[in-house]
Design goal:
- The protein is of the alpha/beta class.
- The chain has one domain: Ribokinase (UDP-N-acetylmuramoyl-L-alanine:D-glutamate ligase, 3-Layer(aba) Sandwich).
- The protein has 10 helices and 15 strands.
- It has helices spanning about 40-50, 60-75, 110-125, 145-155, 165-175, 185-195, 200-205, 250-265, 270-285, 300-305; strands at about 1-5, 10-15, 30-35, 55-60, 75-80, 80-85, 90-95, 100-105, 130-135, 160-165, 180, 220, 230, 235-240, 305-310.
- The strands form 2 sheets. Strands 1, 4, 5, 6, 9, 10, 11, 12, 13, 14 and 15 form an 11-stranded mixed beta sheet that branches. Strands 3-2-7-8 form a 4-stranded mixed beta sheet.
- Strand 4, helix 2 and strand 5 form a beta-alpha-beta unit.
- The longest helix has 16 residues, at about 270-285.
- It is globular and about 60 Å long.
- The protein starts with a strand and ends with a strand.
- About 45% of the residues are buried.
- Bound molecules: adenosine-5'-triphosphate (ATP) and magnesium ion.
- Magnesium ion binds next to loops.
């Protein structure tokens, strides 16, 4: 089983408002409310590929209950640590072909709540063989929280895939105990290295030899419609993908993490691991709904992904 962690989940509300009026009343029909958060997208895609998944993280209040109901309805096993504060809503107003987002920061956790979650996490690890950690940390937890989670899993011999950014990512990378895999996109990589990263093979190859990445088995730099650049052990790969009909690319990185997790769990070959990860990312981009893939299209797209080893 794969454990998927979301520390700050949300209910994502989408308001389609054709003609959005500021400082006035806007009425809205066709409201959509879904359980959101990057790790929940990962969990949904893992489930759709047909692998067992358990979703965990921190959740609270009626919004938390709604999230759990959503997961249960999708038959996704879940074991969240409950707090007294409400989980957050994230609102997207779709207007005039644009999207205006209002994102609540969410609950503020105490150090005690953080420690209690870690205890629960440790228990859950006895049921799983791989962990994915996605998204940002809730307020109140120190930036080394994911680093602790990687270390706790490492002590039990369990690999962790980390998909986060900023200081929590830096903390994970500068620790002696390394995550098994990370999946930065170009802007996360740029932020981490403090430079404008170019999408060229020679520059990416050089950047990934940076000391920050030593000891990490898989570094998958995802590049949206361009595919990915990858370091696995001492080998480098460029992965190219076919042109697809993009409907909504939000969450494609999460779907890529899900594909990566499943392929690693199934001990696929290096090219197949990368083909699976790219295919799940593309399949997510082809759907309107975030964290949803059409499995029927998997095989055909998989064959069209090209993995080229770089000398
Ligand atoms: N426009 C696109 N066309 C084709 N494939 C795409 C597109 N966007 C994403 N993908 C697929 O999904 C993978 C991950 O996408 P991307 O690099 O955008 O991740 P991301 O920036 O982490 O996204 P998010 O954080 O929103 O989930 C890509 O490597 C690719 O396989
Ligand atoms: Mg991402």
């Amino acid at each position: 089983m794969i454990l998927s962690v979301t520390m700050n989940p949300s209910v994502d509300i989408s308001y389609p408002i054709q003609d959005f009026k500021l400082d006035d009343v806007n009425r809205v029909e066709n409201v959509r409310k879904t359980a959101g958060g990057k790790g929940l997208n990962v969990a949904r895609v893992i489930k759709q590929i047909g692998e067992d998944v358990l979703a965990t993280g921190v959740i609270g209040g009626t919004i938390g209950d709604y999230i759990i109901q959503g997961l249960t309805k999708s038959d996704i096993g879940n074991h969240f640590f409950k707090i007294n504060q409400e989980s957050r809503n994230c609102i997207a107003i779709l207007h005039d072909g644009k999207q205006t987002e209002i994102l609540e920061s969410g609950p503020i956790l105490s150090a005690e709540e953080g420690a209690a979650f870690l205890e629960k996490y440790q228990e859950l690890l006895s049921e799983v063989s791989l962990v994915t950690i996605s998204g940002s940390l809730p307020s109140g937890l120190e930036s080394g929280f994911y680093r602790q989670m990687v270390e706790i899993a490492w002590e039990k011999g369990i690999s962790v895939i980390v998909d986060t950014s900023g200081e929590p990512l830096r903390q994970v990378l500068t620790h002696d105990v390394k995550p098994f895999a990370i999946k930065p996109n170009i802007s996360e990589l740029s932020q981490l290295l403090g430079i404008e990263v170019e999408e060229s093979i020679s520059s990416l190859k050089q950047l990934l030899t940076n000391e920050l990445f030593h000891g990490i088995e898989w570094i998958v730099v995802s590049m949206g419609g361009t595919g990915a650049f990858v370091k696995n052990g001492g080998d480098f790969y460029k992965v190219t993908i076919p042109a697809i009909n993009v409907v909504n690319p939000v969450g494609s990185g999460d779907a890529t993490v899900a594909g990566l997790a499943v392929a690693l769990k199934r001990k696929q070959s290096v090219p197949d691991i990368l083909k699976t990860a790219m295919t799940t990312g593309m399949l997510n981009a082809m759907e309107a709904e975030t964290g949803y893939i059409d499995r029927e299209k998997f095989g055909q797209l998989f064959e069209m992904v090209e993995v080229i080893k770089i000398d």
